[in-house]
């Protein structure tokens, strides 16, 4: 377990959010990918922000109340996101999780986004590693 790295549990198939994108597009991406937040990147895939479900909820409430139309991600995103290295040990990351900490971590290599690690991925890996937790059986077509 100690040798497991962020790169071993990261998702690298999720398309990041780009500057200028409307918030409705962000909401669709969050819901489609079942994540609580996504990194915002520039044209070189450098992480410049982070947008969460909570950010979207607040911005959409405000914009609908004031009839302002669809906000863009630049107006809503958090501009100082916490990023991690692909080499970071999953155990170290798990020990740093806590109240008020991010639920999704952008993984950055040489200044570019290469994936994300979610709390769910960390939990699943800890369970798989034999921490005495049996993973639930998922229903199959044969059940």
TrEMBL record:
Residues 10-68, 77-135 form the CBS domain. Pfam families: CBS. It comes from Marinobacter lipolyticus SM19. Keywords: CBS domain. This is CBS domain-containing protein.
């Amino acid at each position: 377990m100690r040798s497991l790295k962020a790169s071993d549990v990261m998702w690298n198939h999720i398309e990041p959010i780009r500057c200028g994108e409307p918030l409705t597009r962000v909401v669709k991406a969050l819901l489609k990918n079942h994540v609580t937040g996504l990194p915002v990147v520039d044209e070189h895939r450098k992480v410049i922000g982070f947008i969460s479900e909570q950010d979207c909820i607040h911005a959409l409430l405000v914009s609908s109340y004031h009839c302002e139309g669809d906000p863009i991600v630049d107006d809503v995103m958090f501009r100082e996101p916490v990023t991690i290295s692909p080499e970071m040990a999953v155990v170290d990351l798990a020990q740093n999780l806590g109240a008020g900490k991010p639920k999704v971590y952008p993984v950055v290599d040489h200044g570019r986004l290469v994936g994300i690690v979610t709390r769910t991925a960390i939990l699943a890996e800890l369970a798989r590693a034999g921490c005495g937790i049996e993973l639930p059986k998922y229903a199959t077509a044969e059940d």
